[in-house]
Amino acid sequence: MTTASDKIATFVTTFDRSKLTPSLFHVAVRALFDTVVCALAGVREPASDIVLRYARGQSAVLRGTVWATGETLPIELAALVNGTMGHALDYDDVSSPLRGHPSVAIFPALVALGESIDSTGEDILDAYIVGFEVCLRLARAMVDDHYAKGWHSTSSVASLGAVAACARLLKLPHAQCVNALGIAVAQIAGSRQNFGTMSKPLQAGQANALALRSIGLARLGFDASDRALDGEQGYSALYADGADLSCQLDQLGSLPLELESSGIEVKKYPLCYATHRTLDGLIDLMAET
C-alpha cells in the first residue's frame, strides 16, 4: 500500500520544474515580498520583541537573517522569529481552501535554509510552489473538520507544506522526506484558542521552526512512521476524524497547480480575511453617504 507520506515524498522528489510557468513564479515572488514586508511591519509588536530576545540567547553553526534587524541567528530561530513577526499584525496573505496563511508558514523556513546553503532565488521559489501544493492538497482533504476542532491551520496544516518545501530545496531522498513528514507530525500543534494573544503569531513561527527541525533530524537518520499521516492513530485520524487524504494527494502536481487554481489573497486589512468583503461594503456605503 502506498501511504500518504510516500505520495508526498514522490511528488517532492520527482516534480518536473518545467511545469512551472512565469505566472506561477510571479505569484510566488509577490507572496515572498508580502511575507517579508509584513514581518518588517510587525517588528515592534510585543510578541516580536519577546521572541527575538529569546532567540538571541541561542547559538548554532547554520545561520539565517532576521529580516527586520539584519542580525543572524540559528536557522530554526531565524525562521521562528521571521514567521512570528510576519503574522504579528495579521496582514500576511491567505488562501481560502487552507482557511489560513500559507506563505508565513513556509517562506521564513525556506529563506533561512536557502540562505544557509546558498540556494538560488529560483530554487527557493520552486520549493515554495511545491510546498504550497502539498499544503493546499492536504487542506482540501481535511481542513473543514480540522478547523472545526479548533486547530489553527496556518500552523497545523501549512507546517507540512513547509516540510515538503524544505525537503525539495535540500533535495532530500525519498526515505528521508517520508521520515521528515513523520517527525513533523510528532510536533504539530496550534490552537485557535490562542487567537487574540501573542501565541497566535508564535504558532506561525513554530510551523517554520518545526519544519527545519524535522528536515535536520531526518538528514541525520532520525526515523518516524511512514503511516504518520494516514495510519489508524496518525495525523488524519487524530486531527480530522480520519479524513481520506489519498483522493487529494493522488492529484499532486496535476495542472493547474494549486498556486494558480486556488491562488493567494493579499490582505487589505489586519483582520480575518472573511471580513474583508463586509468591510469593503461598509466603506463603500460610508463613501456614498
How would you summarize the topology of this molecule?
Layout: H1 4-14, H2 22-41, H3 46-55, E1 63-65, E2 72-74, H4 75-88, H5 103-116, H6 121-148, H7 153-156, H8 158-170, H9 174-185, H10 199-219, H11 235-239, H12 246-249, H13 258-261, H14 276-288
User: Roughly how much helix do the residues carry, as a percent range?
Assistant: 55-70%
Instruction: Report how far apart the termini are.
Output: 63 Å
Share of β-strand residues: under 5%
Count of beta strands: 2
Instruction: Output the structural class.
Output: mainly alpha
Separate helix tally: 14
Mean residue pLDDT: 94
- Gyration radius (Cα, Å) is 18 Å
Shape: globular
- Spatially, the strands of the biggest sheet line up as 1-2
Which sequence of SSEs, written as H and E, runs from N to C?
A: HHHEEHHHHHHHHHHH
Q: Sheet with the most strands?
A: 2 strands, antiparallel
Flag low-confidence runs.
Answer: none
What features would you describe in this structure?
The mean pLDDT is 94. It is globular and about 65 Å long. The protein has helices at 4-14, 22-41, 46-55, 75-88, 103-116, 121-148, 153-156, 158-170, 174-185, 199-219, 235-239, 246-249, 258-261, 276-288, and strands at residues 63-65, 72-74. The longest helix has 28 residues, at 121-148. Strands 1-2 form a two-stranded antiparallel ribbon. With 289 residues, the protein is mainly alpha-helical. It is built from 14 helices and 2 strands; from the N terminus they run αααββααααααααααα. α5 packs antiparallel against α6 (121-148), α5 (103-116) runs parallel beside α8 and α5 (103-116) crosses α10 (199-219). Helix content is 60%, strand content 2%.
